[in-house]
Amino acid sequence: MKIHVHIERLILDGLPLGPGGGARVQAAVEAELTRLLSSDSLAEGGIAQAWPAGGAVPDVPAAAIRLNAGARPAEIGGQIARSVYGGIGRKP
Questions:
Q1: Is residue 7 part of a domain?
Q2: Is residue 4 in some structural domain?
Q3: Quick check: is 42 in a domain?
């Protein structure tokens, strides 16, 4: 099973990430989404079983996240990924 994720835009407004921080957040989002989707595809009732012929989700509503002061890019990316993953849902 192949999973392709395309995130058109990710706005990180007002976060003091420092040089290269945005790229580290992006890498963390990609890594955590890959982990979540890969483990879900193997689970009973997971994506692979819910979408045996594939499918597309044009928009994914993601819940707001709360960051602690001094959160590192890896933590930020992980929270973003889990929020997006929670909004993916299943085919009706």
A1: no
A2: no
A3: yes
Specify the long-range contacts of residues 6-14, CB closer than 8 Å, at least 24 apart: 7/84, 10/80, 12/76
Q: What is the mean pLDDT of residues 1-17?
A: 76
What pTM, to 2 d.p., does this model score? 0.77
| Cα dihedral across residues 43, 45, 47, 50: positive or negative | positive
Q: What is the 3-state secondary structure (H, E, C) of the chain?
A: CCCCCCCCCCCCCCCCCCCCHHHHHHHHHHHHHHHHHHHHHHCCCCHHHHCCCCCCCCCCCCCCCCCCCCCCHHHHHHHHHHHHHHHHCCCC
Q: What is the number of other CB atoms lying within 10 angstroms of the CB of residue 25?
A: 25
| Residue from 4, 11, 73 nearest 41 by CA | 4
How many angstroms separate the CA atoms of 15 and 20, rounded?
12
Instruction: Indicate if the pLDDT at residue 73 is higher than 80.
Output: yes
User: Domain of 56?
Assistant: 21-88
